[in-house]
Amino acid sequence: MTTTLTTKTTNPIASTPGLVNTFRSEWIRIWHSSLRYGGFGVLSFFSVLISYFIYSSLADPTAAAGPPGRTTAADLEQAGGMIHALGSISTLAGIVVLSLWAIATASDYDSGLIRVLVQAQPSRLTLLGGKIIALSFFTVLLSAATVFVTSAIARPLARAYEVDTEQWRIDAAVEMASGFFNFLVPVLVWGLIGLMIAVLTRSSGTAIGVGIGWLLVVENLIGITAPDITHLMPGGTLSALAAGGTNDLSWSSALSLTLLYGALAACISLFAFRNRDIVS
After folding, report:
1. How far apart are CA 220 and CA 230, in angstroms?
2. How many domains are contained in the chain?
3. Which of 15, 98, 177, 201 is the Cys-Cys partner for 194 at CB 3.0 to 4.6 Å?
4. What is the pLDDT of residue 28?
5. How confident is the model over 91-120, as pLDDT tens digits?
6. Distance of CA 57 to CAs 71, 143, 152, Å?
7. pTM (2 decimals)?
8. Residue 187 resides in a domain
9. 33 within some domain
10. Domain range for residue 153?
11. 213-244: burial string, b at 16+ Cβ within 10 Å, e else
């Protein structure tokens, strides 16, 4: 009697983790306590703090007008007033998310993990795509929590500062969904910008410094020399979308430019990550 032994060969292509497994791998690391508690804690704190300052700075809760650019009671009493503070929170939220995306991306280079990841997933586009999807899902949860905290703290503040909330009941679900969308899209693009800089520089510190420096310094300097184009810069455009549109930039124009900035950041990141040598 002859016994035939068969050897099972492993197909390297079949064993290569796909996008779903890549997403799971990235999500385990992204959902680490430092990023989770740091992101949710910081944005919740700023949501409460900024909301408080907005309501407490109302000189006259019944005033229908005020200094240009300053929030009035009339602004807060409109439909959707419970999330009016999101427009002011969005810039800080963008900085936080840019930092989180940069840290999550650059830490792979700092620890040398990037070499292991590339060996496990030879398709670099799939690898970075899984990271982008995981970070985007994290940002969706982060944004939802920020919107919830902002709307929850609005009612006790409105009672404390005698702001009428009767109009808040009008199309509340629609206003919440619209506010969430206008807040989420700019924040996601800030994250993509942070990822792009981190991929190019392979340093979270540099990515955070460049991102914050551009937002707080460069765009302000451009505003001094060429104020007519500041609303077309990334910071101005993303802020305009979060505010639901401004006098200088309509909501639809702000959305189009924001999506363009996000697409450019994603394409540059994918191209650089795919073609550059991996150096840890």
Report:
1. 8
2. 1
3. 98
4. 87
5. 899 999 999 999 999 988 888 888 888 887
6. 8, 25, 19
7. 0.86
8. yes
9. yes
10. 18-274
11. ebbeeebeebbeeeeeebbbbbbbbbbbbbbb
